[in-house]
Design goal:
Blueprint lengths: L4 E8 L1 H4 L7 H14 L5 E7 L9 H11 L3 E6 L2 H4 L3 H14 L3 E4 L4 E2 L3 H34 L12 E3 L7 E3 L4 H12 L4 H10 L5 H7 L20 H9 L7 E3 L2 E4 L4 E4 L6 E3 L9 H21 L11 E3 L6 E6 L5 E6 H6 L9 E2 H21 L1 H15 L8 H26 L5 H49 L7 H7 E6 L3 E3 L2 E10 L3 E9 L6 H13 L1
Length: 560
């Protein structure tokens, strides 16, 4: 208790900056440190959040302070006033009236005269917290009113201009045509009106090295998306949804649209508004396409999307949210396959968007997937029914191969380590007594003590790790037995159902197909609830695979 520190917490938001130097971080630090020294609240540490709203409690300085609260480093928390802690009265009350008292922490808000050791000041704190929230709520209303007023004037408010435009250097709320990217926007609409499909338009843009919006934003320093571009080719890989967004954006026919979302006070979340609630101001800047062309392009897009919806009326997705690509760990997309659309396949979503530059297909037919997963589940059920403990040992041994820490150490080695640790502790005690009696001089005492303490720490670390590994191994065995109970409860099954999959399976990783002895072979890994991966499933892939195509795809994949 005596070695606990005092946390001096400072916060400044952008709204507070308008109030002048009295609220500055440096002034808060000075005032809090003087108060701590005067009142003996030493040692102390500063926790600082500069530029964070009081409604947002996910602030780095505040979260660092909470970490130290939960590890019992902090005995007292001091702020300039209650509003520095936050402006959400419910959340602030959770800390000042529940968390801090239960952790034995004293809280002081200097200017508000709040000290949790004084019951009367706590009553005032509740009222003050409500007032602080009303202050933020009033500010939010004023800001919203200002934005709405600017929206009705047709002011473009986003920080980053839309693709094809730049901000007017004289008026940042006005858009000017960007000579570099505007021609590509015009070409997109031209190709759509000529009947080009989404993929054909994307191919044209890639072949003509049209930079995607994210690259333009990064290159011009508006937003940093540099991690998306490992090579030059990645700058020209257009996503299907990016094209759809451009075609649907009214900005290209000269309109400014605002009010698409509504901000929810205190939650920092946004809800989509219905189109009738949007604020649309026409002819606020020079258009890149005529209004008639924009409307015709959107009619074409709408018809295509409706056709796709009609085609999607196939059986429910049994594996929804379960499938992952073994290459990139992204989800798998479900789609129809073949000219008659009578087969269903799953394809890596990363490949679907970016092509072979990011990943390979990892294509698997749904019929194959169902048979393989059903067969593996039935295999686990049979193993559990035949010899439950043998099944547990087999899965545990597999886990040990994957995670060597589960093996632990032998009992003989642990007993030897424990005995040596006990002996070293005795040596340290004896050495101290001999030093106190003058039987060992100071130099020898320090040298020998350093040696024994070093060995003591190493031995203790070995014992702690062994104990932790034993706990993990025991927990793993308990989880495997829980899995065995699950498969036993399912009983004999003849077909997959959503209930069976959701009960037994966590996720499934799909590997790329390969050719073995002239036959297409595929592998998938089923990760079960509690047990994880209990082995790989390999099977001869469907007759709809072409082995020459697989070989060609694999060569491409290895070349990348």
């Amino acid at each position: 208790m005596d070695n606990k520190i005092t946390a001096l917490y400072c916060r400044l938001s952008k709204d507070d900056e308008r109030s002048g130097e009295s609220l500055s971080i440096e002034n808060q630090k000075l005032m809090l440190s003087q108060y701590a020294k005067k009142n003996g609240l030493i040692p102390y540490e500063f926790y600082v959040d500069d530029g964070y709203s009081g409604l947002n409690f996910d602030r780095p300085g505040f979260q660092a302070m909470l970490d130290d609260v939960y590890t019992d480093r902090i005995g007292t928390v001091v702020t300039k006033d209650l509003s520095r802690l936050g402006r959400n009265y419910l959340a602030v009350g959770q800390y000042t009236e529940i968390l801090f008292p239960t952790r034995g922490i004293r809280y002081i808000a200097i200017y508000d005269g709040v000290d949790t050791t004084d019951a009367q000041s706590n009553d005032f704190a509740a009222i003050k917290n409500v007032i602080n929230e009303f202050y933020s709520r009033d500010n939010s209303k004023k800001i919203k009113a200002a934005f709405t007023s600017r929206a009705h004037q047709g002011k473009y408010k986003s920080t980053v201009p839309p693709y094809g435009y730049v901000k007017d250097p004289v008026d940042h709320n006005h858009l000017l045509i960007d000579a570099e990217t505007a021609p590509f926007v015009k070409k997109i609409f031209e190709l759509v009106l000529e009947g080009f499909e989404n993929r054909q338009v994307r191919d044209y843009l890639r072949e003509n090295k049209a930079p995607i919006p994210s690259w333009i934003h990064t290159e011009r320093g508006w937003i940093d998306r540099s991690s998306m571009f490992p090579n030059e080719a990645s700058r020209y890989i257009w996503r299907a949804d990016t094209l759809r967004t451009i075609i649907k954006n009214r900005v290209y026919c000269g309109d400014t649209v605002s009010g698409k979302t509504a901000h929810i006070f205190k939650t920092r979340k946004y809800l989509k508004n219905d189109e009738e609630q949007w604020i649309i101001v026409k002819d606020t800047h020079e258009a890149l396409v005529t209004r008639d062309d924009w409307e015709r392009a959107n009619k074409i897009l709408s018809d295509i999307e409706q056709q796709k919806k009609n085609k999607r009326k196939y059986s429910p997705n049994l594996f929804k949210g379960m499938l992952r690509c073994a290459g990139c760990n992204k989800s798998m997309n479900r789609r129809r396959y073949g000219s008659k659309n009578d087969r269903i396949i799953y394809v890596c979503s990363q490949y679907s968007i970016y092509g072979a530059d990011k990943c390979s297909q990892h294509k698997i037919f749904e019929d194959d997937l169902k048979r393989a997963v059903l067969g593996d589940i039935r295999k686990q059920i049979k193993a559990s029914d035949n010899d439950r403990e043998a099944m547990v040992r087999r899965i545990f041994d597999l886990h040990k191969e994957l995670d060597k820490t589960l093996e632990g150490i032998t009992s003989d080695f642990y007993m030897e380590t424990e005995k040596r640790h006990s002996d070293v502790c005795s040596f340290i005690d004896d050495l101290y007594e001999e030093y106190e009696k003058g039987m060992v001089n100071a130099d020898n005492y320090r040298r020998m003590m350093k040696k024994y303490q070093g060995e003591q720490q190493k031995l203790q670390k070995i014992m702690d790790e062994a104990s932790l590994n034993d706990q993990r191994a025991a927990e793993d065995k308990r989880n495997i037995r829980r899995f065995a109970d699950l498969v036993s409860d399912v009983g004999d099954i003849r077909q997959l159902t959503p209930d069976i999959l959701n009960t037994l399976v966590d996720h499934i990783c799909i590997h790329e197909s390969d050719v073995v002895d002239g036959r297409a072979v595929q592998r998938l890994d089923v990760y079960y609830k509690y047990a994880g991966r209990v082995g790989s499933v390999r099977f001869n892939a469907t007759r709809f695979y072409r082995t020459d195509k697989i070989n060609y795809t694999n060569k491409q994949r290895h070349a990348v």
